[in-house]
Design goal:
Layout lengths: L13 H4 L7 E9 L2 E8 L4 E5 L5 E14 L2 E6 L3 E4 L5 E4 L4 E8 L6
Antiparallel strand pairs: 1-2, 2-8, 3-7, 4-5, 4-6, 4-7, 4-8
């Protein structure tokens, strides 16, 4: 992502920073630090983020549309404005039964305590 897309100290609409691409998953990183990152993701209908296991909790909020998130084999439907914390060390995947946009935050520090 071109860092010029989002300027510090300037108001922006996260949902407008990323666009849908037909038959694709689009990911833009807004903040990337050694301690964590914030990303925007747009999934077209029928697309899936592959099943994975993260070593960190992930906070995800649906900005537009509806998403299906599968955590540990359990399917959870999220609508615009709803959020979920995907726990670390659990298999998860994200499906677009319809197209949607989301923002995700991973914080990599603080696990020592």
């Amino acid at each position: 992502m071109d860092k010029a897309d989002v300027e510090k100290s300037k108001v922006f609409m996260a949902v407008e920073v990323i666009e849908y691409v037909p038959n694709s998953v689009v990911i833009k990183t807004i903040i990337k630090k050694s301690t964590g990152d914030v990303t925007l993701t747009a999934l077209d209908v029928g697309e899936t983020l592959s099943e994975k296991i993260s070593p960190f909790d992930t906070f995800s909020q649906i900005l537009e549309g509806n998403a299906e998130i599968v955590i540990g084999g359990k399917s959870i439907m999220l609508r615009t404005g709803e959020s979920i914390i995907i726990p670390a060390h659990i298999k998860n995947k994200i499906k677009a039964n319809e197209r949607f946009k989301m923002i995700s935050t991973i914080i990599k520090s603080g696990y020592e305590s």
